[in-house]
Amino acid sequence: MKCTNRKLLTVLSAWLFAAFLCGCGGLKYDFAYDPDYKVSSFQVTKTSENLETSSFAQNLCIVSADVSANDLNLENAGAACLFDLGSSGVLYSKNAHERLNPASLTKIMTALAAVKYGSMDQVLTATNNVNITESGAQLCGLKAGDSMTLDQALHILLMYSANDVAMLIAENIGGSVEGFLEMMNTEAVRLGATNTHFANPHGLTQDNHYTTAYDLYLIFNEALKYESITQIMHMSAYETVYTDKDGKSKELSVKTTNRYLRGDFNPPENITVIGGKTGTTNAAGACLILLTKDTSGNSYVSVILRDPTSDDLYLDMTSLLREINNQKERFD
Fold this sequence. Notes:
Blueprint: H1 8-21, H2 41-46, E1 79-84, E2 89-94, H3 106-117, E3 123-125, E4 147-149, H4 150-160, H5 163-174, H6 177-190, H7 213-223, H8 227-233, E5 237-243, E6 249-255, E7 271-281, E8 285-294, E9 299-307, H9 310-331
Helix pairs in contact: 3-4, 3-5, 3-6, 3-7, 4-5, 5-6
């Protein structure tokens, strides 16, 4: 299945132009988080009218239905997709538009908004909002008054998935957590990820916090345009020194949560894992999104949501990545 839909922006442009001529330019229109709303990524992929459109979907992979693959059974996964970035092809898709809890895959959008609206040398200072008390939440131990640069914070956020660092970033880049969430949700709509809504910057379980496998692809695909993000996601370990509230230096060493980069699991032959993001909560299950390359240098994005366990997740992801080789064999 290939990216061929080029319809939406021409329709929108014509409609807005007509509204302008009719004197409606001062009205405000809400962009609903609704899979049935006519202006959404889901409807862009679903509709098939013969209309001319500009490039909302240009160079994007498009999913309108499940895409099966021979001998690939991901029955335990809530949703899964495999995208060929070079051809804009969809090699596999299961429940691509089903709204699910993304857990810490949320932090991809946190990083994207932070890099877009902040600067890497910006100094961030923690408030009491970093004191997350939820049982099992991944933390690096920040206290109110501690400070570090955005560059340091992004390493800890993406590699170690620290939830207190997500709050640090949100408050400092957005002016408040609420202000940063508005940035995240506005960016999601801009990218066409309109089956997504973020209620926090870290991904811990909360009402009205959801996304889809396809929307995560859209967000991740945009994040990959920033070299700082891709470089961090490729690292297996990171050491840094930040400053506490008394001005004293505090050392911090973290390792990636990505079990491919840690060496716990191996990808299929001829496939290299560049990096990605992990996520796990009781509500979301085990989640993972990856950027990989084959021996020809072609890039792929794969995502799995709501697998029962971490082991299940990596076994399923390995099976999904194996489909890259299978597809190449079919066409060679």
